[in-house]
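Readers of this paper often ask what the protein records in our data store actually look like. The remainder of this section carries one protein's record, kept here as part of the documentation.

:::
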Amino acid sequence: MAAVRAGASGFLLKDAPPEDMLAAIRTVHAGDAVLAASTTRRLLDQLLQQVAPAVDPVSARALAGLTAREREVLEAIARGWSNAEIAERLTVSAGTVKTHVSSVLAKLGLRDRVQAVVFAYESGLVSPGRA
């Protein structure tokens, strides 16, 4: 969790094959985040342990600045859905999803999807029972 707050945009295991590391570097360079499947559960467990029961008023105000569709997209990101999955479930194009993701990140001052997931939990948009 501290790594995400400090700016980490990805997590790989140290025994990841070189081609996975190279792909991860390219992905992060392109502005996305990378999480090794085996680390996702641990990251979420840590996140859930740190989520305060009360919603931070600053986060709540920031969340209120999003449109209803942007909140839907943020919630979908927090559920771990890809852009293609979000597009299919919201019946929009992948390009529209990318636009919404970019808008969410910009409005909330977030760098990537990992920080968006953290924000979604910390703001109360997504809770452990609704993830």
